[in-house]
Design brief:
With about 210 residues, the protein is an alpha/beta fold. The protein is about 55% helix and about 10% strand. It folds into two domains: about 1-10 and about 85-200, HAD superfamily/HAD-like (Rossmann fold, 3-Layer(aba) Sandwich), CATH 3.40.50.1000; about 15-80. The protein contains eleven helices and five strands. Strands 3-2-1-4-5 form a five-stranded parallel sheet, sandwiched between helices. The longest helix has 15 residues, at about 65-80. The two termini are about 20 Å apart.
């Protein structure tokens, strides 16, 4: 099983951390989001460190940021994405206990990766961790899927990929992987049952 991280194993972005970033930049939410995502693919590919990403953000948004503000934006951004979903993390632990071979395949910047590797002991149960910032490529580029399959030592047909973005799911399916679009743990359990995987795996949610 190959997992995306953001909004699959992580929970909803922390509201107070997002509000802190809005307060620093003094941008309207929709303006902030526009510039935040404009440069995110390059950040996740490792083209920038955090400082460079937020300098690009500031330039495109036509605002000025002090070094202290940039440091705080990096800190709050890490917090936004490192609040995990306890239900999904518990399921991952049970998958590992059941002997299921797993990997993470995530578009991830260096700062968030470093925080996770330092603080998330449950990452040790994965056979492989694929971070886009280490490879210079990101989903939905087919090369990052092939890299993960090679590290797992499995064929595409042997793997189940779970991601919250349709374009990433479609890219996986185009390569021959089985894939599920993630929305909620409860829906994931239903999708596993519909696809026939549930009988081979611990239940995602209680009551199944």
């Amino acid at each position: 099983m190959i997992f995306d991280y953001g909004r699959v194993l992580s929970g909803p972005p922390l509201h107070y951390a997002r509000e802190a970033m809005l307060a620093i930049t003094r941008l309207a939410p929709e303006v902030f989001e526009s510039h935040y995502w404009r440069h995110r693919p390059a950040y996740d590919r490792g083209d920038f460190h955090g400082d460079g990403y937020w300098r690009e953000f500031a330039q495109s948004a036509a605002i000025s940021l002090t070094d202290e503000q940039v440091a705080e934006l990096i800190k709050q951004d890490v917090m936004v994405w490192t609040a995990t979903d306890p239900l999904m993390v518990d399921w991952v632990r049970r998958l590992h206990e059941a002997g299921v071979l797993t990997a993470i395949l995530s578009n991830m910047c260096r700062e968030i990766r470093d925080h996770m590797v330092e603080h998330f002991d449950w990452l040790g149960g994965f056979r492989h961790l694929t971070w886009s910032c280490e490879l210079g490529i990101s989903k939905p580029d087919s090369a990052i899927y092939w890299h993960t399959l090679e590290k797992l030592g499995v064929s595409a047909e042997e793997a189940l990929f779970i991601d919250d973005l349709q374009e990433n799911v479609r890219a996986a399916e185009a390569l021959g992987l089985q894939a599920i679009l993630f929305t909620t743990p409860a829906q994931l359990q239903i999708d596993l049952e519909l696809s026939g995987f549930a009988t081979q795996l611990p239940p995602v949610t209680s009551g199944h």
